[in-house]
Structure formats: C-alpha cells, structure tokens
Amino acid sequence: MCARVPNCYGVPDSSARSTPSATPRTLLLPLDRNTRRLADSANSMPVGNMATWYSGTAADVAVNAGVERFASTPDAENYLRHWFEPTGRLRIPVLTLHTTRDATVPFAHEAVYAGVVASAGRSGMLLQRSFTRLGHCTFTTAEQMSALEALAEWAATGVKPAA
Predict the structure, then answer these.
(1) Which pLDDT does position 91 carry in this prediction?
(2) 148 CB neighbour count, 10 Å cutoff
(3) What angle do CA 95, 132, 5 make, to 5 degrees?
(4) Which residues contact 77 (CB under 8 A, 6 or more apart)?
(5) What share of the chain is helix, strand, coil (3-state, %, to 5)?
(6) Which of helix, strand or coil describes residue 10?
C-alpha cells in the first residue's frame, strides 16, 4: 500500500515512505470514520470487507489479521444505491472544490463525478476547481469566498464562471 500512495493520492515518494507503518493508518482512519457515518445514515452497514484482502504493505498478514471486519446488509446497500449514488442530473449550478492530495476523498473522484454529470448531459451546470496541496478541505478563506461569490454570480446571471 505504501508504494501505491503516490499513485493514488499524489503524495511525494519521500513523505509516503518516510513512515511506512503510519501511512496505512493515516489513510484508513478517515475512511473508517466516513464508513461509520455512512452506516449511521443507513441504519446498518452498506459496505463490507469480509472477503477483502488488504495488500501492499510489508505486514499484509498482520494488517489483515488486525483489521476490523464487517458485512453489508441488503437494506443498507439499497439505501446507499437510492440516496448516495450520484445521477449527474444537476438542476442548479454546482461548484466543487478539491485539493489534489486529499487522503480522505481522492482527487480522482472529481473526474468520476464530472463523468457522471457529463453522461447525464449536464456538464454546463458543473464547475470544478482544484488546489495543489495536501489535506482534506484545506482551502483558504480567500479561496472559499471566491468560490461562493462565483457560484452566487453564476446563479444570478446564468453565466458560468471560469475554472
């Protein structure tokens, strides 16, 4: 896993390998937190890892022996499909902000979402802005205000701002 961090998250090789035992924990903690939030929303577990083998670390056996295992439930899977699957059918302007080296929500999700929106024929309603830095939602106040002002102007005039 540590060797793949740069490819998945854009983290420079030196920082990804500087603490190999901490890297998987650093990446998995936010995923665990978000999975539990999702489970709370669905009132049971919508995803599972019972048959998942985690690999890529120097301690794959230990990682797999120690990772918490859980099973999904059909009702929660249905809830996830119904309420959390983006359709891309945007009816109002949407402006997204993303950092390029976000370990909580990988930057690649932006392209996936853009593809879903494009498939629905609604790309004209989506504007995506990215910032080259580490962290989840580590936007400056100026970046946030600029995005909010651009979105408000877009909504008021119907003219999509520049990326």
Answers:
(1) 94
(2) 11
(3) 110
(4) 46, 47
(5) 50, 10, 35
(6) coil
For residue range 131-151, what is the model confidence (pLDDT) as tens digits?
Answer: 999 988 899 999 999 999 999
Tokens of 115: 């593809």
SS3 for 63-103, per residue? HHHHCCCCCCCHHHHHHHHHHHCCCCCCCCCEEEEEEEECC
- Residue 98 forms beta bridges with which residues? 130
From 130, 152, 154, 156, select the one nearest 143 (Cα to Cα).
Answer: 130
Cα separation, 132 vs 97, whole angstroms: 11
- The percentage of the chain sitting over the pLDDT mark of 90, rounded to a whole number, equals 41
Q: Which residues pair with residue 97 across a beta bridge?
A: 129
d(CA 37, CA 33): 6
Q: Minimum mean pLDDT among 51-55, 113-117, 121-125, 148-152: which range?
A: 51-55
The residue behind tokens 């999975």 is 35
What pLDDT was estimated at residue 98? 95
Q: Cα-flanking dihedrals φ and ψ of residue 101, to 5°?
A: -125, 60
